[in-house]
Amino acid sequence: MVDVKGSSQYRSIVVRYRPWQRAAVLVAFVLLLLLVAGASAYVTQTDFEQLKNKLLAENADYKKQLLLVTKQRDSAEQQLANITMGADVDRAAVDGLRIELKDNQDKIAELTEEISFYKGLMSPSERERGLSVRDVEILATAVEGVYHYKLVLQQTALKHRLLKGSARVVLIGSAVNEKGEQIQRRYALADVSADLKTVDIPLRFKYFQNIEGELTLPAGFEAQKIELVARATSPKKVQIEQTYEWKVQAL
């Protein structure tokens, strides 16, 4: 080679031109991309199917649990309803029996009292013979200040004969006078009851006599006691005096 002074020298490399090689590389690269994409798609699809199946399985399991819990709730509600109904029935039955028992006890007490009363009338002891007071009752009414009264006088004797006499009933209480002072007041039963015509109530009976009616308390008068004086003129003279507390029984 000739050495030429004053000019740059370049080394040349000769490369064989192969156009099919570039195409092969390009095709290989494209195939590689497709393979990677396909693999990714396959993995993604597989994961999706697995997740889907898992969710479906869990959903089915939840549905079973919901059905079971619903059945348990319905069963509990039915049991509660049965218990409540049974309790109501039992309570009503118990209440009914309690009322019936109370009525029977009241009837027994009343009959026992009646038997004792008639037994005392027909077979009295020596101490019990003569005129006596069996009962004094004051009952409330629907009208304020108005009361129903009932007094029972009886004759206890081995041999009953017609008893004659009289009885006087007086209400004792308090009231405020015109000066504002608390003072004692006394009212004969005949003065406050239209059912009695006289202060001295006639007595005429062989076994017993009821004195019964309604009374109206005077305004401002507060009843406290009931005083009863009964006198028999025949078959034997006798007088009894009794004082009772003013106790009003409810309707």
General description of the model:
Helix content is 43%, strand content 32%. The chain is rod-shaped, with a radius of gyration of 57 Å. The relative contact order is 0.10. By secondary structure, it is of the alpha+beta class. The strands form two sheets. Strands 3, 4, 5, 7 and 8 form a five-stranded antiparallel β-sheet that branches. Strands 6-2-1-9 form a four-stranded mixed β-sheet, with helices on one face. The chain has two domains: 106 residues; 123 residues, Immunoglobulin-like.
Descriptors:
single chain; 251 residues; alpha+beta; Immunoglobulin-like; 2 domains; 5-stranded antiparallel sheet; 4-stranded mixed sheet; 2 helices; 9 strands; 43% helix; rod-shaped; disordered N terminus; DUF6776; coiled coil
* Overall outline: rod-shaped
Largest sheet: 5 strands, antiparallel
Report the strand count: 9
Write down the CATH class of the largest domain. Answer: Mainly Beta
Order of helices and strands: HEEEEHEEEEE
State the helix count.
2
What integer value in Å does the Rg equal?
57 Å
On the 0 to 100 scale, the average pLDDT is: 78
- Unreliable runs, pLDDT <50, ≥5 residues? 1-7
Query: What helical percentage do the residues reach?
Result: 40-55%
How widely separated are the two ends? 153 Å
